[in-house]
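note to self: dont lose this again. the chain is below, predicted strucutre after it. 219 aa total, dont forget to put it in the shared folder this time
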Amino acid sequence: MASASLQFFAFLLALFGGFGDITATLLPNWKVNADVGSNIITAITQMQGLWMDCTWYSTGMFSCTLKYSVLSLPIYIQAARTTMVLSCILSAFGICITTVGMKCTKLGGDTDSKSHACFAGGVCFILAGIFGLIPTSWYTREIISNFLDQTIPESSKHEPGGAVYIGFISAGFLLIAGVIFCTSCFKKQQGAWIYPPKEHHFPSTEQESNTGYNLKDYV
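---
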């Protein structure tokens, strides 16, 4: 019962991590630049994401521009696009697989099949967490290095946006969920290896009868 509850908790973490991955991939605020200027009325907030760049004006206007050209983008943005999409796909696969393999569901067949399904889903969650952690770390490193560079003007410097933090949290949720699923199945298999079932050997009735017959012959 405790193992089933732990798997359900890990499944909820994986759900939050998967939805967070999708949200962080689509949000346009991976890095933010706030230019107040001489008047608060003319304040402009510029946001850049993986797929579009948006500008928000203090007057209430909001405009976005899609990034159509892939080759013109920096390498870290191209890598972030690829790895975040892979993270979303792997988390979706992990959710489908663990739904079949969890103990609280009636799918997946016998116990061994469900255990293998849970282990495969946990591996998918771990890979999804790694693929989600790589772009967020690389993107944050680029933002910080440009912010600390003295040769770059202040108007061109940015700060990490909300999508980066969502990506970090989602990657952590997926990693924790994957570890829980993998270790729960590993402990069960390890216990079967350490404590194998004892085999009971019973002498056959035929041998007993033969033994008794031989003893009578010698009397």
